């Protein structure tokens, strides 16, 4: 049952939180791609109490390096929507589920034919092969703190971790859902960029890169149970971690679907929603 933070505090539940998982865009970072001083202070406080803090995001790990350095989110977390499990503190890649070459070729053929916005990710970086929706790419790369590599995807030989596809809902409302039906062997994890609410994005990853498997891996890695985990998110792709955690927190800017699977709905990201929860629960 989803309740407010105030209602949660009035209940008898006293969570023993040992691991905090944070989605990035729309959760840690506001529409301008930055976090607040309040969030930084709250995360530092729980870290000092011994709580492990980690990223659980659709971003590749190279696009969260500034969060390791500035917020100390260096514990083992989940990246590329489950396709990577990486430990920043030791630079260790625990798990990786690259897309099969055959799937990548078929997907690219569809994306090129439909003239959709798409990006390709490997461990080396973010690739684009044509100038589509430059306003989206510019904001995205600014928020990721990385520069795209312009190169034909046919000449990229490193394993592909994920493809990111975006559509303007005013022009192609069902394009991603149609694409997903054509590729049932892939996982489509949906999310929105807070800066562009009329766009819908899907991270396309290997079918074995499930969030449930990644969550179970983290529990075993840390030697804890789900009741020891608090997970924050705002997007559809965050719903599994929110629902599996002992305390699942939906941001106030999340959709109703995300809020419905959470234990707590906090304030929006621009009102320090993370800090308000951490400061009273831990």
UniProtKB/TrEMBL annotation:
UniProt-listed SUPFAM superfamilies: HAD-like
Keyword annotations from UniProtKB, A to Z: Hydrolase
Enzyme class, spelled out: hydrolase
Superkingdom field: Bacteria
Enzyme Commission (EC) number: 3.1.3.104
Record GO terms (molecular function): 5-amino-6-(5-phosphoribitylamino)uracil phosphatase activity; magnesium ion binding
The keyword Hydrolase appears for this protein: yes
Keyword NADP: no
A cellular component term, taken from the record's GO annotations: cytosol
InterPro entries membership: Cof, HAD-like_sf, HAD_sf
Protein name: 5-amino-6-(5-phospho-D-ribitylamino)uracil phosphatase
Taxonomic source organism: Marinagarivorans cellulosilyticus
């Amino acid at each position: 049952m989803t309740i407010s933070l105030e209602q949660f505090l009035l209940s008898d539940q006293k969570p023993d939180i040992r691991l905090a998982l944070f989605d990035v865009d729309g959760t840690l970072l506001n529409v301008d791609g930055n976090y607040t001083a309040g969030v930084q202070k709250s995360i530092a406080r729980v870290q000092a109490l011994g709580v492990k803090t980690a990223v659980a995001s659709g971003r590749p790990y190279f696009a969260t390096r500034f969060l390791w350095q500035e917020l100390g989110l260096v514990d083992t977390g989940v990246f590329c929507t489950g396709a990577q499990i990486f430990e920043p503190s030791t630079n260790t890649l625990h798990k990786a589920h690259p897309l099969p070459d055959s799937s990548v070729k078929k997907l690219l053929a569809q994306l090129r034919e439909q003239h959709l916005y798409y990006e390709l990710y490997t461990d080396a970086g973010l690739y684009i092969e044509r100038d589509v929706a430059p306003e989206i790419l510019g904001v995205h790369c600014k928020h990721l703190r990385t520069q795209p590599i312009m190169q034909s995807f046919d000449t990229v030989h490193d394993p592909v971790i994920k493809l990111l596809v975006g559509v303007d809902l005013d022009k192609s409302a069902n394009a991603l859902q149609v694409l997903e039906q054509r590729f049932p062997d892939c996982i489509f994890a949906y999310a929105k960029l807070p800066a562009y609410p009329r766009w819908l994005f899907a991270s396309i990853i290997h079918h074995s890169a499930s969030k449930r498997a990644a969550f179970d891996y983290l529990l075993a890695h840390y030697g804890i149970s789900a009741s020891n985990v608090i997970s924050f998110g705002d997007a559809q792709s965050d719903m599994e971690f929110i629902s599996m955690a002992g305390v699942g927190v939906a941001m106030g800017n999340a959709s109703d679907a995300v809020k419905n699977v959470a234990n707590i709905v906090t304030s929006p990201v621009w009102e320090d929603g993370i800090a308000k929860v951490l400061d009273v629960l831990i």
